[in-house]
């Protein structure tokens, strides 16, 4: 590649809602080359967390995902609100979605969820969770299931837990020594 290339020649942003937009970039990769237009989705940063309860189980959430037109089993997750830190968002989402408070929040890493199409970041956390708060129901439309690492591994192998970002969070937790997932 040439020094100083590629170059963004134009940038246009279209807001679709408070939560999403499209950014178009006209990019030239070399001198004299015609620019190509690339599109990316703009969204707030995401958080996803692997939490572990005092008895060693992992809270999962089941919810309907309109983008897939299906219910999914996932780690608790959500978006970072304006003015909120990613760690505070992780603690908030865990409590909202599962009823479990956060006792300790550990950042596992911050990465691009899809560098070819998404212009945001995903912050992955491991959370040491407390017991669920009595009488606190999860968000409307969310079911909570506490699983062992062995049960989670079986769900992954059976394609019942298939969010790529959340699989990445599990890998980060394993690399940082917070998760021991059986491989057989």
Topology, element by element:
Elements: E1 7-17, E2 20-28, E3 36-42, E4 46-52, E5 58-65, E6 70-74, E7 77-79, H1 86-98, E8 102-111, E9 122-129, E10 143-147, H2 149-157, H3 164-175
Parallel strand pairs: 4-9
Antiparallel strand pairs: 1-2, 2-3, 4-7, 5-6, 5-10, 8-9
Q: Would you kindly provide a brief summary of this structure?
A:
By secondary structure, the chain is α+β, with helices and mostly antiparallel strands. It has helices spanning 86-98, 149-157, 164-175, and strands spanning 7-17, 20-28, 36-42, 46-52, 58-65, 70-74, 77-79, 102-111, 122-129, 143-147.
Q: Features of this protein?
A:
184 residues; alpha+beta; Nucleoside Triphosphate Pyrophosphohydrolase; 2 domains; 4-stranded mixed sheet; 3-stranded antiparallel sheet; 10 strands
Describe this structure in words.
With 184 residues, the chain is an alpha+beta fold. It folds into 2 domains: 7-42, no CATH class; 46-176, Nucleoside Triphosphate Pyrophosphohydrolase, CATH 3.90.79. Helices cover 18% and strands 40% of the residues. The protein has 3 helices and 10 strands; from the N terminus they run βββββββαβββαα. It has helices at 86-98, 149-157, 164-175; strands at residues 7-17, 20-28, 36-42, 46-52, 58-65, 70-74, 77-79, 102-111, 122-129, 143-147. It is elongated, with a radius of gyration of 19 Å. The mean pLDDT is 95.
**SSE string:** EEEEEEEHEEEHH
Can you summarize the main beta sheet?
A: 4 strands, mixed
The number of helical elements comes to: 3
Q: Biggest sheet: strands side by side, in what order? A: 7-4-9-8
Query: What Rg, in angstroms, do the CA atoms define?
Result: 19 Å
- Structural class of the secondary structure composition? alpha+beta
